[in-house]
Amino acid sequence: MKTICIIPAKGKSRGIPNKNLIDFCGESLLAWTISQARDSLQMDNIYVSSDSNEILSLATVYGIKRIQRPEELALDNTSTEEVVLHALDAIKANDEDIIVLLQATSPLRENDDIKKAIDLFTNKRFDSLFSISIVKDNTIWKLDTDRRLLVGALFDNFDRKQMRQDRQDYYYENGSIYVFTAGNIRRYKNRIAGVAGMYMMPFWKSFEIDEEEDIELVEFYFRKKILKER
Question: Where do the structural domains in the chain lie, given as residue ranges?
Answer without folding.
Answer: 3-130+173-229
